[in-house]
Amino acid sequence: MLHDGAVDFVLHAELLNFAALKIKDAVCDRFRDKAHGVRPDVNTQWPDVRIYAHLTTDTCSLYIDTSGEPLFKRGWREDKGDAPLKETLAAAMLAAAGWRGTPGEGGALHDPCCGSGTIAIEAAQIACGIAPGLKRRFAFERLLPFTTPQMRALMQRLKSQAQTRIHAPAVPISASDVSFRMLDFARRNAQRAGVEAAIDFHGGDALERPAPAVPADLHGTLMLNPPYGERIEVAGKAARPSAEDRDTPGDFFPRLAAHWKRAYTQHPAGWTAWVLSPDMKLPGAMRLKASLRVPLWNGPIECRLFRFELVAGSARD
Ligand SMILES: C[S@@+](CC[C@H](N)C(=O)[O-])C[C@H]1O[C@@H](n2cnc3c(N)ncnc32)[C@H](O)[C@@H]1O
User: Fold this and answer.
1) What is the pLDDT averaged over residues 209-226?
2) 170 Cα to the center of ligand 1, angstroms
3) Strand 173-177 to strand 108-111: parallel, antiparallel, or no bridges (unpaired)?
4) Does the CB atom of residue 194 touch ligand 1 within 6 A?
């Protein structure tokens, strides 16, 4: 008689550690043979060189990590807040919006829910011509041939050339947040990124702050990833319903759209808003028509970057 069967397979961590140990021994032995008996030190937390092994049924591939810290880290963020965007995602949002930091390509930029300042800081670095990652180190800098005097000099020359390309921004960039703690983080991050002077930071509720004052002939770009209520709650006016003001935090988005309609649509050169959200029904909730939806992933969360043209009468109601 045939019974139902099942196999449970458990791979013990010791086995993986054993594989890592074998690779480490092989690398150390090779160094000992080639470098007159000197074996490299092992530092599992902050290694100069990290080796990755991928084991399949019949092959083992070894990779040397030439980046070091993940590439989304540009070297300026220390203060994070609760739900920071990755620097590369903020840069991707700006690229998707065609924002290049010039009067003709995006114009002025404002993030009214700036948190730790990622969008404004990435924007300011673009507008100032600061090469991404100029402030960080890469793992390859500690590997041959980059450790030779010639390559060090070449790297230094490239960095100096990149420094000479830095200039003052041609468009105004501003950022605000209802939380003064977050603003403080954002300012400190901007300082480390070398763009503190390029960003105008303000405190204030996104539902109340007037539109930034920009020249009449300069187009404006609003860009934000607003609070979703998962990791970051809406704060400010919409979170404090009073007797006369019975709105709930769920009203944040229609009220934000209504505020934009009042404060932003009178500008002669117009404003365009770009909102990153995992809520596919956001345009309906804001009663705004999205003229573009760009799929983007915020870590594991599928999002859309919605584009709204803020022209008079753009709110459906
Ligand atoms: C998802 S976070 C933005 C994260 C930011 N992009 C970053 O990279 O750090 C949303 C931000 O909205 C702010 N916020 C919540 N309610 C607000 C309101 N009514 N007005 C302005 N900012 C608000 C929160 O303080 C929080 O910093």
Assistant:
1) 96
2) 26
3) parallel
4) no
Ligand 1 within 6 A of 189 CB? no
From the CA of 80, give the closest atom in ligand 1.
9
Phi then psi for residue 89, to 5 deg, are -70, -40
Per-residue pLDDT band at 246 (split at 50, 70, 90): very low
In this structure, which residue's CA is closest to atom 3 in ligand 1? Answer: 115
Q: What is the mean pLDDT of residues 71-85?
A: 84
pLDDT band with cut points at 50, 70 and 90 for residue 313: low
**259 within 8 A of 206, measured Cβ to Cβ:** yes
Closest among 251, 231, 264, 277 to 81, alpha carbons compared? 231
CA distance linking residue 73 with residue 197, whole number of Å: 22
What local confidence, expressed as pLDDT, does residue 223 receive?
98
pTM for the complete prediction? Answer: 0.85
Quote the mean pLDDT of the chain: 88
Cα of 302 from ligand 1 centre, angstroms:
19
Radius of gyration for the chain, computed over Cα atoms and rounded to the nearest angstrom = 25
Distance, CA 304 to ligand 1 centroid (Å)? 17
> In whole angstroms, how far apart are CA 156 and each of 146, 168, 215?
11, 23, 40
Three-class DSSP category at 255: helix
Predicted pLDDT at 317? 43
Report the nearest-CA residue for atom 26 of ligand 1: 115
- Tokens at 247, concatenated: 């709105």
pLDDT for position 153: 95
Q: Find the 111 Cα to ligand 1 centroid distance in Å.
A: 9
